[in-house]
């Protein structure tokens, strides 16, 4: 799949291979192409693991050269010379390359010009280099070479020698380089923005551990989806950072394994979560070393919701970013923090941090909701205070708050706590409001988990308020998603079509929710008039698929007013006009929409 924006092609990984092969097979394409993506997005990894192999499967030699650290065009020539001749590379130290490179003439007769008489090594194979080689120059944004000289040199290879050439770069790093933008178009004919398929790349990233430690590989493979979830929360989604975290976690995993299965069962995923999240903020410079090393395992709760500072402490921001709805699994490890920064793992301190108690490390809320009668009075009081503070902070998923309230209502009625029902109600209502702001609710508010029939009036009020608050949150979320896809539809119509087709998409919280109610009819009709013929047909198919079941009125009745306006405005666009192929396609689209309208009014 691909789409266009401001003259740049955006292509997912599956399509990138074909695009590159099409370029290589195109004999008339006398230009280079650029694969553009942010630093750490996986471009080089993708070249090494997939793209170079695809090129070589076509009978070509894929030559990779990083421009980082190359100080002159002569050095670049030297690297090219050696990379295209493995025999010479082995004798590199014995050959006076500086003398020989002075003889090289890049012209239409040959790429490498003269033979090396001293060693009588034939370079006849290089006479057809343009047919056999594909060149890849990486780290364009990091080169210290004069760009005009660099592009001039490579232009000889591309334009005059017809050598297929690929650049890899983080072009955003070149935004302020006026020279680059002036000369780019003379050499680079196509820019492709790299969009990594994180599932595929992460799977390839962990693959080497199969040979190193099969148990560790299996653990990572079993948690692949979880790793991706944490990775997608990272601000820059940097694969180098992810790779670094997985490599560093290997030692932690082995320590836990040596400590016993119980430690693996309890800590392995928690520690993986922590090291992935911590590595992300450390590598992105989101926390200072001194600040991170001062944080202890209880700092999150000590930070407190009562902190009135405009800027919340780092630890709160960290939890809100990487542990939304998962605060019960959060733990801050000072030992691992020190290990990340220094490479030193304090074994004694690590053993103390990960020590399992008889209670199985139950959190305060779990203790209260599963075994409060077994707690000492002191521990019970401590747990209730902690949970009430956490309720105020809004760190619990909105779905769990009514259930927690039911226990506190019992504690109040039985006088186990000195707090009346009205006070509890205010605290839990506040917790519901803050939960929406602080944590991300589950996709669906699981109303069936709560029993209304045997509940008190206050419990029912809290449950109703939680349900109402979640629905309002969900409505805003869906509206935002719809507007974002409409805004991008001019260059990514497939994204909008996918949103329309997937009426039950957990990723967007679309559990058969009406989406056209959030659409401006005029804006949608304007979009239709700009769509290509192919995309018009795709839009019609998407609407057909969305409403392809019997009881659509039960779910999509609120879409009706906008659909009526859309079909009316589209009819006015073609009414009285000559029946062209395009107008015929719009007519068929109107018929599909009117059919939906008819079914929604029955």
UniProtKB/TrEMBL annotation:
Ranges in coiled-coil conformation: none
InterPro entries registered for this protein in UniProt: KAP_P-loop, P-loop_NTPase
Domain KAP NTPase: 18-80
Protein name: KAP NTPase domain-containing protein
Pfam families (alphabetical): KAP_NTPase
């Amino acid at each position: 799949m691909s789409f266009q924006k401001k003259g740049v092609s955006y292509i997912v990984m599956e399509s990138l291979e074909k695009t590159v092969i099409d370029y290589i097979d195109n004999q008339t394409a006398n230009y280079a192409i650029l694969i553009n993506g942010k630093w750490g997005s996986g471009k080089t990894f993708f070249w090494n693991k997939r793209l170079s192999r695809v090129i070589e499967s076509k009978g070509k030699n894929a030559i990779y050269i990083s421009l980082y650290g190359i100080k002159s065009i002569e050095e670049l020539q030297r690297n090219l010379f050696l990379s295209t001749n493995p025999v010479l590379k082995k004798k590199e130290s014995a050959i006076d390359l500086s003398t020989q490179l002075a003889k090289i003439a890049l012209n239409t007769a040959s790429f490498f010009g003269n033979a090396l008489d001293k060693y009588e090594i034939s370079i006849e194979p290089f006479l057809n280099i343009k047919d056999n080689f594909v060149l890849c120059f990486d780290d364009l944004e990091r080169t210290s070479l004069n760009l005009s000289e660099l592009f001039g040199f490579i232009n000889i290879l591309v334009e005059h020698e017809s050598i297929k050439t690929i650049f890899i770069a983080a072009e955003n790093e070149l935004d302020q380089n006026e020279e680059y933008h002036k000369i780019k178009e003379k050499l680079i004919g196509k820019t492709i923005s790299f969009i990594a398929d994180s599932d595929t790349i992460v799977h390839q990233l962990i693959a080497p551990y199969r040979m190193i430690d099969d148990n560790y590989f299996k653990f990572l493979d079993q948690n692949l989806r979880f790793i991706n979830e944490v990775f997608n929360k990272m601000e820059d989604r940097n694969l180098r950072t992810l790779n670094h975290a997985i490599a560093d976690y290997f030692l932690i995993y082995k320590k836990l394994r040596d400590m016993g299965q119980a430690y693996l069962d309890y800590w392995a995923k928690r520690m993986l979560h922590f090291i992935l999240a911590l590595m992300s903020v450390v590598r992105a410079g989101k926390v200072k070393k001194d600040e991170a090393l001062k944080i202890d395992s209880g700092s999150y709760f000590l930070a407190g919701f009562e902190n009135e500072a405009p800027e919340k402490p780092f630890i709160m921001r960290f939890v809100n970013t990487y542990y939304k709805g998962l605060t019960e699994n959060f733990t801050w490890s000072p030992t691992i923090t020190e290990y990340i920064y220094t490479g030193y793992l304090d074994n004694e301190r690590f053993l103390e941090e990960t020590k399992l108690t008889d209670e199985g490390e139950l959190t305060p809320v779990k203790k209260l909701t599963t075994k409060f009668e077994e707690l000492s009075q002191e521990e019970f009081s401590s747990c209730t205070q902690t949970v009430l503070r956490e309720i105020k902070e809004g760190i619990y998923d909105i779905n769990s708050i009514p259930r927690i309230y039911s226990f506190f209502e019992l504690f109040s009625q039985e006088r186990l706590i000195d707090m009346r029902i009205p006070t509890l109600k205010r605290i839990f209502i506040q917790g519901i409001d803050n939960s929406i702001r602080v944590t991300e609710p589950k996709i669906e508010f699981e109303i069936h988990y709560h029993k209304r029939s045997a509940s008190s009036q206050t419990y029912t009020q809290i449950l109703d308020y939680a349900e109402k608050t979640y629905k309002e949150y969900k409505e805003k979320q869906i509206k935002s998603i719809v507007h974002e896809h409409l805004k991008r539809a001019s260059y990514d119509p497939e994204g909008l079509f996918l949103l329309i087709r997937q009426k039950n998409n957990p990723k967007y919280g679309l559990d058969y929710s009406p989406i056209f109610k959030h659409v401006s009819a005029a804006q949608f009709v304007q979009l239709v008039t700009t769509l290509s013929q192919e995309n018009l047909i795709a839009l019609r198919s998407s609407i057909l698929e969305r409403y392809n079941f019997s009881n659509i009125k039960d779910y999509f009745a609120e879409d009706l007013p906008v659909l009526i306006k859309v079909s009316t405005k589209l009819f006015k666009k073609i009414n009285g006009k000559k029946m062209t192929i395009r107008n015929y396609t719009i007519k068929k689209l109107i018929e599909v929409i009117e059919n939906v309208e008819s079914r929604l009014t029955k």
